[in-house]
Each structure stands twice: as structure tokens, then as C-alpha cells.
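Why do we bother with holo predictions? Because pocket geometry can differ from the apo form. Keep that in mind while you read this record for DP6.
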Amino acid sequence: MSPWRATARAHPNIALVKYWGKRDPVRILPHQSSLSVTLAPLEVVTTVEFGAPADSVVLHGTEARGKERVRVLALLERVRAGTTRALGPVRVDSRGNFPMAAGLASSAAGFAALALAGRAAAGLSTEPGAVSRLAREGSGSACRSVQGGMCIWHRGSREDGEDSVATQAFPEGHWPELRLLVAVLSRAEKEVGSRDGMAQAVETSPYYPAWVKDAEAEIPRAIAAIAARDLEVLGALSERNAWRMHATALAADPPLCYLLPGTLGLILALPAARRRGVPVWFTLDAGPNPVLLTLASHEAEVERLAREAGAVEVVRCRPGGDARLVEP
Ligand code: DP6
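The structure, written out:
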């Protein structure tokens, strides 16, 4: 392998206590800590090679243009700034094993793999803290995809962001029965992405300060529930954190509604399923497709329930491992 080239793989993650708002949009520093589960078998594989004839960014087989290309190259500029070596133009090739059209964001896995491959290709340390800080500057939630299992992105308080980093709270083997099913109700691209949506909520939602305080307080409770492998407590916590994030978004001006009628149809059917003895709870990012938390013993039943409620695709996931370097 050339010393200026490396390939890394990383899984996406789903937050159970969500990040929704930046105190510093340039360094990507959040207003509150967040907690997520890394999702296998979904992953993005990214190769970075310095010393290429010209800068080139290929995402999912297509040469990237516009904002996406700028964000990728900006992250690699930070890599360049960390070394005195003349690295030259860079070639990036990144692809995911899950269709973007499935309504799953690949940016967390993409920037985690890019940060790891970029630092390795430049001969810089690939210690998880350094990779997580760099990934954060590409996309906030990406800092939680550097390590596997359950990770906490600590808000931090420093202005330079050095203490705003994700660490692993539990390895992926801690709760092998946990399952996370992505219920794809719509493949349409959302009108307002997370980045713009959260900025709008910070600026205009009167509920924003309450949201921040509440989310921060949920982190130790989420850790305790995961430690005890108590899905009932964790599920209830995930649902209320998702509702509160969406309530904050709905209260923005103009309002941000990420829910579709089908989203409500599915998530409002869950209490009845629980009464029938099915352990199932939801979380919902800034989009219409819920992620259902359940146990391996009930995975098939929960998939059926999601399909009956209109899911066009159900992606079965479990806690995944660390981002890692691989041979291309
Ligand atoms: C609702 O990490 O995509 O998924 O930092 O602007 O790139 P940027 O935002 P991004 O936002 C994720 C928001 C969320 C909640 C979460 O993952 O914590």
C-alpha cells in the first residue's frame, strides 16, 4: 500500500439522545451532548489517496460537485494542516452498501470513514479521539461513528472544540440482542436538511433552551438503561427525546415538520403492539422514517408491523463495531 493512501470502513449511527443545534457552526460544536448506537451491517468504505494528478471526489460512483465536494475537500484541508509533508492533490472514492434512496443518511458513516482514511493516508495518528474530532468537523453526528457500540458525543466547553469528541460508552458486544429496524416509509428527499433545520430551530424555536437542558439530562439515564439492558426504559427515553426534538422543530418559525402521515400511522401503532407484548419503541431523526428498537426475538414481528403500517423497505440492523482501516 502506498504510504499516502488508505481505505477505511465505518458504520452509520442512530442517536437515541439527539444532537439538534450548534453553538459554533464552523467548528461544529453542539449545544448538547448526544448518545447513539452504531448500525451494522450498513457501512461506507472510503479510500483517500494523496499525490493524485488532481483533486477528485467520487461519491457512490459519481464525481461529486457543489457542496458535497467542498465539504469533503475542506475536511482533507484540515488533514493537510496537521502535517508538514507536501501531500499534493487528493483522490477520494467513497461508497456505501446501503442505497441513499432508502432515506438513510450516509454522511455520518462517510465522514467517519473519510476522517480515518484521511489521517492514515497522511501518516497522522489514527487514535479514536483525533479521528472523532476531525469527523465532527465534517458532520457533527460523524464523530459518533468512529467507535462501535454505543457512543456519547460530549458537548465540551472549550471554544477550540478539543473536548467536543465522542467516546465509546459500551462496546457492540454489550447488548447483542438489541435490534434497530429502519422503517422506510418515504424515499423522497426532505425539504430542509438537518444542518439548516437545526439552525432554524436554534434561532427561532422558543422551546430551544428547554430542549437543550432536557437532552443533556437524559444522557445519564440512557447510560443507566443501556448498562442494565433495559429496553423498556431506553425505549421510552428514546421516544420522548425524539418527540421533544420534533416539538422544538415544529415550534420553529417557519415550522419544520419532518413527519408524514405514514410516520404517525406507524409510531402511533406502537403502544398497542406493546400492550400485545411486543417490545418495540421508536426514534426519529430529521426525516419521516422511524427506527424501531426491539430485541432479536421479536425482529420478524416488528418488521411485519412496520410493513403493515406502510413501510416500503425495512432494514434490519444491530450494534456495529469500530470504524477500521482495511486493504482496498
Ligand atoms: C437529527 O450530523 O447531519 O440526525 O453537523 O450539520 O452535519 P451536521 O448535522 P448532522 O445532524 C444530525 C441530526 C440528527 C440527530 C443526531 O444524529 O444526533
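The chain has two domains: 5-171, 178-319.
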